[in-house]
Write a structure and sequence with these properties.
It is found in: Chromosome, Centromere; Nucleus. The protein has 174 residues and is mainly α. It has three domains: 55 residues; 35 residues; 61 residues, no CATH class. The chain contains five helices and three strands, in the order ααααβαββ. Strands 1-3-2 form a three-stranded antiparallel β-sheet. A hairpin with a 6-residue loop joins strand 2 and strand 3. The chain is flat, with a radius of gyration of 25 Å. The chain starts with a helix and ends in a 5-residue tail after the last strand. The mean pLDDT is 85.
Length: 174
């Protein structure tokens, strides 16, 4: 009976710990949901205000200034992304050339189209921005293992704590 009691106490403590973790996750998800809801409400208010104030010439000028700033930011973003792409193309060429030669010689497995480091980084960034509550992507055979290892060793990406076939971008913005 004493052994059963000890085992049950261990199970109880484990379940309590798991419940605490789940409660923390729930609080975090609720906070994220509230932030998204507030953001949506703010955007709706701003849109309503913009629609009512468009008639004034001063607001039209301000609106045009904001549009110009947004346009400048978009062009700057495109310049940064193209510079990143050029850097990655120059220093991290696509793995297909070397890898396909090896696979053509073996002829045992079909050739898998490997994706570039730039595509991996884009997937990681897009996932982090679109779903910040679940920023992990699944690693499949189209990911070249040396690129995955490079991202992990440099600290740019992290593996999922429970599933080694998933990884996410290190959130530097927090």
């Amino acid at each position: 009976l004493q052994k059963v009691k000890n085992d049950l106490e261990m199970v109880l403590s484990t379940v309590q710990l798991k419940n605490e973790q789940l409660e923390e996750d729930l609080k975090r998800e609720q906070q994220w949901y509230e932030e998204q809801k507030q953001t949506l409400e703010t955007l709706n208010k701003m849109e309503d205000e913009a629609n009512t104030e468009v008639e004034h010439p001063s607001t039209k000028r301000e609106l045009n200034e904001l549009k110009n700033k947004v346009l400048k930011l978009k062009t700057y973003k495109e310049e940064l992304l193209s510079a990143l792409g050029e850097f990655l193309d120059e220093h991290f060429p696509p793995p297909e050339e070397d890898e396909n030669i090896k696979e053509k010689n073996s002829l045992a497995e079909p050739v898998v189209e490997l994706i570039t480091l730039q595509e991996i980084l884009e997937m990681l960034m897009n996932t982090l921005l679109t779903t910040p509550h679940e920023p992990y992507i699944t690693i499949n055979e189209s990911f070249w293992p040396p690129y995955i290892e490079l991202l992990l060793r440099c600290g740019m990406a992290l593996r999922h704590p429970e599933d080694p076939n998933r990884m996410r971008l290190q959130a530097y913005h927090k």
